[in-house]
Design goal:
five-stranded parallel beta sheet, two-stranded antiparallel ribbon, 35% helix, binds S-adenosylmethionine
């Protein structure tokens, strides 16, 4: 997969992309992540990419010209057309299901906003899919892009040490994941459930399924409701 990120702050990605699974996935050629600075497409020598909102009001709005020029330039960097995604709190909420669908794409182009957000003509004219990572407002789309990349890349074949690692993850089967334990067997008086020490894999699988269901009913009953709809 190739992921292009269009941003005014490419340096924000240095650290998250250079550690752990995301670093390994890039080193192993599973994903190619390319950063492009929208400011490089400013039309004037001041490298201006934002301006005051028409009609008045606080803050600055991202101008359409540099964003369109940047998207058009980035599109040409690969033969793969790619799925263009605008990060905005006004988009559809990102979910594990969405991460799964995006992980099947060959190329994603993520556009991170800043300031008061995008000039409306960016939303209308690009026809991009709009994604929000939740009902809150961030200072910029960079962290939202990171969240999406992190969730998508771990689903790419070969990204995790064990292909099955993400199979039982919370939300993958519409449930929260079952409780996990590791050594020691007893910690501060809390014991690992006997069933997990029994070696009976069939019973362990049944117990985990039951635990996942109970936990979901208790903490996130909305997930069970969503499954029925
Ligand atoms: C301060 S926000 C602008 C919010 C905008 N004024 C609004 O109310 O819809 C600046 C940028 O951060 C990004 N952003 C903020 N919250 C986000 C969220 N929940 N999901 C995705 N991107 C977000 C978007 O790219 C947005 O253009």
């Amino acid at each position: 997969m190739r992921i292009d990120i269009l941003t005014l702050f490419p340096e924000m990605f240095d650290s998250p992309l250079s550690a752990s699974i995301l670093k390994r996935a890039q080193d192993d050629g599973i994903v190619d992540i390319v950063l492009t600075n929208i400011r490089d497409f400013a039309a004037d020598s001041y490298r201006k990419v934002d301006d005051k909102p028409y009609g008045g009001g606080p803050g600055m709005v991202m101008m359409p010209g540099p964003v369109f020029d940047c998207v058009e330039h980035v599109r040409e960097l690969s033969l793969e057309k790619g799925r263009v995604i605008l990060l905005t709190p006004q988009g559809r909420t990102f979910t594990q299901q969405k991460a799964g669908r995006l992980s099947k794409e060959k190329r994603l182009i993520l556009i991170a906003g800043r300031y008061e957000g995008f000039d409306e003509r960016i939303r209308i004219g690009l026809g991009a899919e709009q994604i929000s990572i939740g009902d809150y407002v961030l200072n910029g789309g960079e962290l939202a892009a990171m969240v999406i990349i992190d969730a998508v890349v771990r689903l790419l074949p070969g990204a995790l040490g064990d292909e099955d690692s993400s199979k039982d993850d919370s939300f993958s089967q519409g449930l929260l994941e079952y409780p996990q334990y590791t050594r020691p067997e007893v910690f501060r008086g809390m014991k690992v459930p006997d069933i997990l020490l029994s070696g009976d894999h069939k019973k362990i699988a049944q117990w985990r399924q039951q635990q996942a269901l109970e936990r979901t009913q208790k903490i996130r009953p909305d997930l069970l409701k969503d499954n029925k709809e």
